């Protein structure tokens, strides 16, 4: 079980705060657009298949944009204060 | 959206909701398309309905040696065009002919028996001109008599869509006739 917990800690892939709000808003907007376009494309071509293909391809693109922890998503890491005791040097 | 797991769950759950929206839109617009095409008043022609009736003593027809049941075989001509039932959300169409009649002993019960059916899988083969075909299923009743009462023959359709509910309807060309009495001496015994 130790191994699994270690593996879990390795697979977190965090991103910084700015990128978290950015990925959330862009994935929401993209999915609403995909919904609209998949319906319209299917309606115009009169084919359920086209609708499904547009939806799945759009979903894959969103996942590729949002999921991986690109280095651009980790540029604004906050600098946390040291948690250990600070040494105050006497003057 | 902190970890990979959270990002994946957010995107996939929203995508599932969005796919339900697409499905609802497809079902709604295809139903409106059917209404616009006026399919609920489709015309059809049932003609030349004729029958051969015999007395059955077998138990599966509800008959007995003493009191045999009348069993009718029907032949008919049919002429219909169901290509308007096909739009982008139609998987297949089920067409069936029924005979409707009121009970003799219980006049307020309505009976409906399917005598013929057909699965139509595509728009290209949705126009039928059938002449002199045998019904697939024989016609008999719980009561021992089926002849000499008005039977209304109707052609119904049933759309099975890719998304959405089943849609039922019947065509306008119905025909009411009385089947001929069987020429058989067994009944007299």
From TrEMBL, chain A:
Pfam families: SPC12 (PF06645)
Domain of life: Eukaryota
GO CC annotation terms, alphabetical: signal peptidase complex
Protein's membrane topology: Multi-pass membrane protein
Primary location recorded for the protein, binned into one broad class: endoplasmic reticulum
Record's subcellular location: Endoplasmic reticulum membrane
PANTHER family, per the entry: MICROSOMAL SIGNAL PEPTIDASE 12 KDA SUBUNIT, SIGNAL PEPTIDASE COMPLEX SUBUNIT 1
Family: Belongs to the SPCS1 family.
Name used for this protein in its record: Signal peptidase complex subunit 1
Organism: Kluyveromyces lactis (strain ATCC 8585 / CBS 2359 / DSM 70799 / NBRC 1267 / NRRL Y-1140 / WM37)
């Amino acid at each position: 079980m130790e191994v699994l917990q270690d593996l879990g800690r390795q697979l977190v892939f965090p991103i910084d705060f700015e990128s978290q709000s950015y990925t959330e808003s862009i994935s929401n907007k993209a999915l609403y657009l995909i919904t609209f376009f998949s319906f319209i494309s299917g309606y115009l071509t009169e084919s359920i298949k086209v609708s499904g293909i547009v939806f799945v391809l759009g979903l894959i693109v969103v996942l590729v944009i949002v999921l991986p922890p690109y280095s651009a998503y980790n540029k604004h890491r906050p600098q946390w204060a040291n948690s250990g005791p600070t040494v105050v040097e006497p003057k | 959206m902190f970890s990979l797991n959270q990002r994946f769950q957010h995107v996939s759950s929203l995508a599932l909701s969005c796919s339900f929206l697409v499905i609802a839109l497809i079902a709604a617009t295809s139903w409106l398309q059917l209404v616009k095409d006026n399919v609920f008043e489709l015309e059809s022609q049932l003609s030349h309905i004729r029958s051969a009736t015999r007395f059955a003593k077998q138990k599966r027809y509800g008959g007995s040696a003493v009191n045999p049941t009348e069993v009718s075989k029907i032949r008919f001509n049919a002429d219909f065009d169901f290509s308007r039932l096909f739009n982008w959300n139609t998987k297949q169409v089920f067409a069936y002919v029924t005979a409707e009649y009121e009970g003799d002993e219980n006049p307020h019960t309505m009976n409906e028996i399917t005598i013929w059916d057909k699965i139509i899988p595509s728009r290209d083969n949705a126009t039928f001109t059938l002449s002199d075909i045998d019904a697939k299923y024989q016609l008999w009743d719980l009561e021992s008599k089926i002849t000499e009462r008005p039977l209304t023959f109707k052609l119904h359709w049933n759309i099975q869509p890719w998304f959405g509910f089943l849609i039922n309807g019947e065509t306008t060309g119905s025909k009411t006739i009385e089947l001929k009495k069987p020429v058989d001496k067994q009944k007299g015994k």
